[in-house]
Design goal:
about 55 residues
Length: about 55
């Protein structure tokens, strides 16, 4: 990221296992459908809330 903007991209074949896990976690926890740009052009996306698991 540079000034809140995407500055690079790693193709799936170039990602380490850790990169892949981070991307999957972000896809699960961030609601990209409700993202908005702030006054500085940065994309702000709310996180998804989950109900606790009951036993």
């Amino acid at each position: 990221m540079a000034n809140g903007r995407l500055a690079g991209y790693r193709c799936p074949g170039c990602q380490s296992p850790e990169d892949h896990v981070e991307a999957e976690v972000n896809n699960t926890l961030i609601d990209y459908g409700r993202a908005v740009a702030d006054g500085r052009g940065r994309l702000i996306a709310p996180t998804v809330s989950f109900e606790p698991l009951s036993r």
